Automatic annotation (TrEMBL):
Pfam families: DUF6191. Residues 67-100 are annotated as: Disordered. The keyword Membrane applies. Keywords: Membrane, Transmembrane, Transmembrane helix. This is DUF6191 domain-containing protein. InterPro entries: DUF6191. It comes from the Bacteria. The chain crosses the membrane at residues 6-26. The keyword Transmembrane helix applies.
């Protein structure tokens, strides 16, 4: 009978709240050593069920985790340099296009 309750939407919400409470309790006592919260994932999936925008956000998050992130991405090559130790930044702007 309990399975039938948790197979419904209100039952799922109750189950997620119980899991969230247990998760927070374990983290407060020091037994939960992980950084993320298990309950947050469940609530995000429940939110995505009712919101198409949230579904797109979760898809974008998944694809961003799979993409390679290089340190040199984002800055034009050999134009700008930043010396953090010396406290100096050099920015070279591209020359303006010549009018014909």
């Amino acid at each position: 009978m309990e399975f039938v309750v948790f197979a419904t939407l209100p039952g799922l919400v109750i189950l997620l709240v119980v899991i969230a409470f247990g998760d927070q309790l374990l983290r407060a006592t020091g037994r939960g050593k992980r950084r993320g919260q298990v309950s947050a994932t469940g609530f995000e999936q429940l939110h995505a069920t009712f919101s198409a925008g949230k579904q797109n956000e979760l898809k974008e998050r998944r694809s961003a985790l799979l993409m390679k992130d290089d340190e040199e991405d984002g800055a034009p090559p050999h134009r700008s340099t930043v010396d953090l130790d010396g406290g100096r930044a050099v920015v070279r702007l591209p020359s303006p296009p010549k009018a014909s």
